[in-house]
């Protein structure tokens, strides 16, 4: 065990393709989930303590649970149990990723806490063990550890790294209030039932990654990528939060190459041609007053990284 605090930086994600299969008997959906890590970060600092304690700072701190429902706490408990260590750690989360926004903020904290505790306690877990614990914590948590760009199969936890050809410029419109991921998946099922297509794994075609999209990522061509960005959860997120239509329109009119809901939302993501175009989209979104905050960033960026 080291006595010095350990800080880990973990990025947010956007899904450039989220193809959702039918509802499985275990309550999850099979996915073809193309993740891209982007440069908005939470920082998790682990310090020795007399007991497991979570604190959070940042503008959305009041929305983050401090009990064992927090993925950071669950990560520490899972690692401690496997290695016979007492989970005596203070985890401080400096939160910059929007909460319940569809950008994997909670997953980032899980992956970050896991890596921070592994470093602090010198448990020496292998990469595969860390990935297995991440997968137990949640479907998006393994990607927060890995970062870059990856295709997630299964419920999103089975990752295959993807090659990317350049920096992509993004603008994110942060909504007032979050959306619950299970509620958005339920709404997706409800809309499929209402459309008469059915929602079970037998009714919905197996989700598959788009060849055009993987090619566009490889070449890093934002125009080509914009033409094929796709999120099967978008109709459900918009159904639960109809005002997102205005946000998506405002960013498109502001010059975005493409607009889509990020993951289960309600954060909206806008792909821009270059940094100048991204600033133009951000200004248009701010003028439109259709969102609470606007963030400009780029990706891909690396996954969870120990800073000190
Ligand atoms: O894995 P995670 O805990 O993040 O998932 C939260 C909820 O999102 C699940 O309980 C489920 O309702 C929904 N989900 C899903 N299919 C996935 C991932 C998540 O239905 N592939």
Write a structural description.
- The protein has two domains: 6-162, 2-Layer Sandwich (Ribosomal Protein S5, domain 2), CATH 3.30.230.10; 168-299, 2-Layer Sandwich (Alpha-Beta Plaits), CATH 3.30.70.
- Helices cover 34% and strands 28% of the residues.
- It has helices at residues 71-83, 105-121, 127-137, 141-146, 181-194, 211-219, 222-226, 234-240, 244-253, 275-288; strands at residues 6-23, 29-48, 53-57, 89-94, 149-153, 158-161, 168-174, 230-231, 258-261, 268-272, 293-299, 305-306.
- The longest helix is centred in the middle third of the chain and has 17 residues, at 105-121.
- Bound molecules: cytidine-5'-monophosphate (C5P).
- Residues 27-29, 31, 138-140, 155-156, 181-182, 185 line the site of cytidine-5'-monophosphate (C5P).
- It catalyses: 4-CDP-2-C-methyl-D-erythritol + ATP = 4-CDP-2-C-methyl-D-erythritol 2-phosphate + ADP + H(+).
- Residues 214-285 form the GHMP kinase C-terminal domain.
- Keywords: ATP-binding, Isoprene biosynthesis, Kinase, Nucleotide-binding, Transferase.
- Residues 70-148 form the GHMP kinase N-terminal domain.
